[in-house]
Design goal:
about 40% helix, about 40 residues, 2 helices, mainly alpha
Length: about 40
């Protein structure tokens, strides 16, 4: 009987993560500044 393949978890992101900037982007979705700051971070 063949073994069922085990589902692998996706790898963690390799890019830097900043939850404060991400929260600012979400909180001020109508503004460009938080997104531009995050993009340049």
């Amino acid at each position: 009987m063949a073994k069922k393949p085990v589902a692998k978890t996706p790898p963690a992101p390799t890019y830097p993560v900043n939850p404060v900037l991400e929260a600012a982007v979400i909180a001020h979705a109508e503004e460009d500044t938080p997104r531009l700051v995050y993009a340049n971070w």
